[in-house]
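idk why but the lab printer keeps eating my pages so im just putting this in chat instead. protein + farnesyl diphosphate:
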Amino acid sequence: MAIYSDEEIRAFGLDRDALPKHIAIIMDGNGRWAKKRRLSRSAGHRAGVDRLRGIIRMSSDLEIASLTLYAFSTENWKRPSDEVSTLMALLIEYFTKEIDELFSNNVRIRIIGAYQDFASPVRSVIERAMKRTENNTGLNLNIALNYGSRAEILRAANLAMRQAVAEGKSEITAEMLEGNFYTAGQPEVDLVIRTSGEHRISNFLLYQISYAELLFPEEFWPDFSDEAYLSALRVYQSRSRRFGGLEGNA
Ligand code: FPP
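predcted complex ->
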């Protein structure tokens, strides 16, 4: 593991103390990246997966607490079946090939979303990855699979309601709701990055991003380099976050 020193972080133009604790990324633009090169959409997704290694490594080395990646939404089932199959095959390949490196970098893998709906080869590879890394203490890598924020909120509300009924209470609290999110116990999202110049949130972590800074870099996901990531972090640090208060009171 190569945690960056303060000096290296300063050389990137960053302040270690003001780094986001939780970064969420919508990895958009694989299809357009491929089209521009007259390649198949599958080739675009493969290039997208290749970009994961650098971004995860850098997040880990910067000691970011949580990185959440939107890999497959509840709406992505609407894509042509061969594209869905490609994404599933890439998931299996990714977890099989990368698990040793993720493990040795102390990354803890968690899947957020209703991954139980996936076919058993996908399910078993992701369950193995979660199990293998469950005692790791470094970066929390949340991979959103069959994820939709509205469904997550509804699920959490129902779980919290059952808890309330069992405890004889007539209302649920914010803590009960948040405690039933897939991201329970992790810091709130500080920064959302959606690549490819699209300005939408697309049902991603709607509750958790309430006070997040939003960045929409133009690069397609496979072109979102380590340098582009650092540049996004510099923009984040240049913004003043007030959480509804006044300057200096945050
Ligand atoms: C959006 O690009 C991207 C996706 C729907 C899939 C993102 C998934 C990956 C990068 C692979 C994830 C795999 C692992 C192992 C975590 P798009 O196809 O919608 O791009 P377009 O808008 O240009 O068509």
